[in-house]
Write a structure and sequence with these properties.
Rossmann fold; alpha/beta; 2 domains; 22% strand
Length: 311
């Protein structure tokens, strides 16, 4: 019997992190054996100056590094003796999902880096070290990068079973409260819409909120097509999204989402869909169909094929 592929997965183990979805997708595979490594913060995350999230969100790595609230993550040193001794086997592949995680060295013969935040992080050194460098945003790609967009998780991001006319919220945005997002939500609530807007809820908690929403809002910080885009579409609710390059190349405006560039345009799009549950339901269903192939499972399968581990 052929043995499983041995993969070490390293990331910054916050209670909510992009690496968690990649890790879950790898765990669903029958051909992979995993060992996890990285700085570990327990229930704390540095959003909004530092907040505590539910214990149920916590994923503890096999080899955790200390990460104290208010302190920069410990540097992950790949050549450190105690780390090498902890590995149960020689890995076939080392995957690093890097969201500003400080790293030194090169960990394995085959080493892949996934740059989860190329719009805000300088990955110069990681590009130099990696055999395969995956970039999640085409506007920030450099020669040699491999495009690997964000995605949705089929376990957590499931279609809402509640008819749009019976949902509690007109719109929802679960995410960091940037100024332009605050402006958009303030305008909508000023017009009488019921908008859920908070930082922190994830997994089952986020699903419960979005299932009760007619419209899913997003406004990217820069030119990034966020994971929230794919998640909103997977929930089957009507997406109102700011126009960014990857979004408009992957999905069709007016059919899979309503787009905007300004606060006023976003307000009008959200208001139109919130007040017409039938239209909201129609665009939500079309968005759900369009996003169906874009799972984290598909992304990890693509990564393993690109590095030559599977055919």
């Amino acid at each position: 019997m052929k043995r499983k592929h041995r993969i070490v997965f390293s990331t910054l183990f916050y209670p909510v992190a992009m690496g968690r979805y990649m890790l879950d997708a790898l765990r669903r595979r029958q051909d992979v054996e995993l060992f996890t490594v990285g700085p570990f913060s327990g229930t704390w995350i540095p959003w909004k100056g530092g907040i505590i999230l539910p214990q149920s969100y916590v994923e503890t790595p096999d080899f955790p590094l200390s990460l104290m609230p208010g302190v920069a993550p410990s540097t992950l040193v790949y050549g450190e003796a105690r780390l090498l001794d902890a590995l149960p086997w020689k890995p076939d592949l080392w995957i690093e999902a890097n969201a500003a995680m400080p790293v030194r060295g090169r960990p394995a013969e085959t080493y892949a880096v996934v740059a989860t935040d190329p719009h805000v992080v300088d990955y110069t050194e990681r590009r130099r070290e990696a055999d395969f460098f995956f970039n999640m945003q085409t506007p920030y790609m450099q020669p040699g990068d491999i495009w690997l967009p964000y995605a949705y998780d089929p376990q957590w991001h499931t279609p809402s079973p509640i008819p749009p006319s019976q949902r509690e919220y007109d719109a929802a945005l679960v995410g960091l409260q940037y100024g332009h997002r605050i402006d958009l939500v303030t305008r909508l609530t000023g017009l009488g819409l019921r908008v859920y807007f908070d930082t922190g809820p994830a997994y089952e908690d986020a699903r419960r909120i979005y299932h009760q929403s007619r419209v899913g809002l997003n406004w990217s910080s820069l030119k990034d097509t966020t994971a929230r885009v794919f998640e909103i579409m997977a929930f089957g609710i009507a997406p109102v999204l700011n126009r960014v390059p990857d979004l408009v190349s992957m999905f069709k405006e007016g059919e899979h989402f309503y787009g905007f560039d300004t606060v006023q345009e976003g307000v009008m799009a959200a208001l139109k869909l919130a007040q017409d549950p039938f239209m909201a339901d129609e665009i939500g269903r079309k968005a759900q169909t369009a996003v169906a192939p874009h799972t984290w499972d598909a992304r990890m399968d693509d990564l393993l094929r690109k590095v030559g581990l599977v055919k």
